[in-house]
Design brief:
31% of the residues lie in helices and 17% in strands. It is built from three helices and three strands.
């Protein structure tokens, strides 16, 4: 088991279209995330914990940092994952950045990117030190 993990603008439930999908432009074109991922799942139940971990036993996972933003199509998915991890007793550090787009920390040069990357570095430095 790793000492810590990160979940950055992701989905723990491939079966559910999150609330944010109804309000923000899709990152998958005209299809919802579950529709677009149906090809990836190749007939496997999208609630299978191997595809959608929130349906599995999350207890015992290491501390996790979750990161998203208010204009991220996967904001709802990240928040749902946060709730599932907390129910399982996992230590979670959820960061939501105002007005930023999906995975902004990976490609936009702005002060929020510097803040997000610094938060990631601090989280892992805290949990990965011997």
């Amino acid at each position: 088991m790793p000492a810590a993990a990160g979940f950055f603008s992701g989905s723990g439930d491939l079966a559910l279209a999150g609330d944010c999908e109804g309000f923000l432009p899709s990152i998958m074109g005209a299809r919802t995330v579950p529709e677009a991922l149906a090809d990836y799942c190749v007939g496997t139940d999208q609630r299978d914990p191997l595809l959608s971990p929130i349906y599995g036993d999350l207890s015992g996972l290491p501390p996790m940092m979750l990161m998203t933003s208010t204009r991220d199509q996967l904001l709802s998915q990240t928040v749902l994952a946060d709730a599932a991890l907390r129910r399982a007793g996992v230590e979670v550090d959820l960061r939501v950045y105002e007005g930023m787009l999906h995975a902004f920390w990976a490609w936009i040069e702005c002060p929020e990117t510097d803040m997000a990357l610094a938060a990631q570095a601090a989280f892992f430095a805290k949990h990965l030190q011997p």
